[in-house]
Amino acid sequence: MSHRAFPWFGMDIGGTLVKLVYFEPKDITAEEEQEEVESLRSIRHYLTSNTAYGTTGIRDVHLEMKDLSLCGRTGNLHFIRFPTHDLPVFMQMGRNKHFSSLHTTLCATGGGAYKFESDFRTMADLELHKLDELDCLVRGVLYIDSVITSGPSECYYFENPTDLDHSAQKPYTLENHYPLLLVNIGSGVSILAVYSENNYKRVTGTSLGGGTFLGLCCLLTGCSTFEEALEMASQGESTHVDKLVRDIYGGDYERFGLPGWTVASSFGSMMFKEKRESVSKEDLARATLVTITNNIGSITRMCALNENIERVVFVGNFLRVNILSMKLLAYAMDYWSNGQLKALFLRHEGYFGAVGALLGLLHPS
Hints:
Elements: E1 8-13, E2 17-25, H1 30-35, H2 38-49, E3 52-53, E4 57-59, E5 65-70, E6 73-83, H3 87-96, E7 106-109, H4 111-115, H5 117-124, E8 128-130, H6 133-147, E9 155-158, E10 169-171, E11 180-185, E12 189-196, E13 199-206, H7 210-221, H8 226-235, E14 243-244, H9 245-249, E15 263-265, H10 273-278, H11 281-307, E16 311-315, H12 323-336, E17 342-346, H13 352-362
Parallel strand pairs: 1-7, 7-8, 11-16, 16-17
Antiparallel strand pairs: 1-2, 2-6, 3-4, 4-6, 5-6, 9-10, 9-17, 11-12, 12-13, 14-15
Helix pairs in contact: 3-5, 6-13, 7-11, 8-11, 11-12
């Protein structure tokens, strides 16, 4: 079988982050080794011997997939991310390492594959092969789930989700997984109903996503990174910011089964001067996180009901190192559906689009 010339990359250029998936062949023959051009060796060495690139590039080593068989080759799959605003630095690096001399196809997805297409041409002398981001997303999710057989399970859920302090992660097998609702939480949110690998539709979305959380947090607290915003949120108390049912009723709204702890109005207490003066930045960060997450949960639940789908899979980089939001989503799904809906999560969170792009390189449909 004729396989694509190395290097094998898949790239997803999102609104906030660029995700790069790289296949490092581990079965290189002596003959191949001899024929391998310097620029290819240099790229392979640079990517696999570092875990950080420049000031903002990160290789997520804990997600690496070892000894993967792909298109008749065996190797390791690496997962790399960097902010989209550093794309020019990436292109410059590609230029310095003579990437274009390899005459490889660079498969890219996400909005940036369109937005930056001409920049790739002029700055890095690279022709992008553009692929649809939702096609790539679905393909990537189904692929990664199908090939992970050992090590930590790709898919998991939270047991006892309504007990936030004691809800533990438990592995879940996604087999015979259709239909499922796929909720991709990046800068914004897309919600897909997936009926089979080639049959899915985008049900709806919301512009209130991970970018909203970070943007509002930067304004409200003066923080500047996602990690910083999450750290603040983990120290805060959203009930100091929100108006709860009990703040209005003095307790539960019994007739319609709304407990006193339910949020009646997100940020509703901030209209009072004395409340504003006593609130901390951490409280504001936490309230922002809870507001955005609950809204996504609420829209997702309506979609699940509407499409008559019981399994909901949440992906996207808003959930990276964000156990708080995952637990809130698990809680919301379970509580408001009386246990009918199950919230599922995937370890490779934000990388599925890039994986789908890599598959588009190797198996052009």
